Write the structure tokens for this entry.
Amino acid sequence: MVAALLLAACSNHAESARRAVAAIDGALAACSADAGEYLPDRLFEVETQLGALKGLLAQHDYGAVVAGAPAVLAAAQALGAAAAAEKDAVLHALQAQWEALAGELPAAAAALERRLGAGTPPAGARSGLDEAAALWSKAQAAFAAGNLGEAVSAGRRSRAALDAVAMSLDAAAVPRR
């Protein structure tokens, strides 16, 4: 009778330990993509803690698993919330950068186009402006596809190409002695 009670208690403890590890696995699965991108160090820490619990589970140390699981589950859930907040912050910053680029680049390109048409442009100015236009088209396509990071990156490269054209036009306009 005592052996049967001990076996039942061990079985319940083993099942509790398995359920606890499964709950942590589920919490990590729900947030691992965003956590891996925005908080990879914290994800590694929680995965390491989960790995330790799985090692204890494999050694049939169910009591240690049940005792340690709540802290690891809380860490996994907090990681999910923190990763979501970090993603929102990054996307907000990218949106602000996109809006700034979208507000300035078309006008800057048009102004440079007028300057190119006003005289003989220096070598490479036309190709630089064409490159900037192609990059801006790529940025707009990325934005339309919902890829804000790529849109901002291509927009920055377009801005750099426009800056290079402006510098070459400014240098050509300086009288030589």
Summary: The chain is about 90% helix and 0% strand.
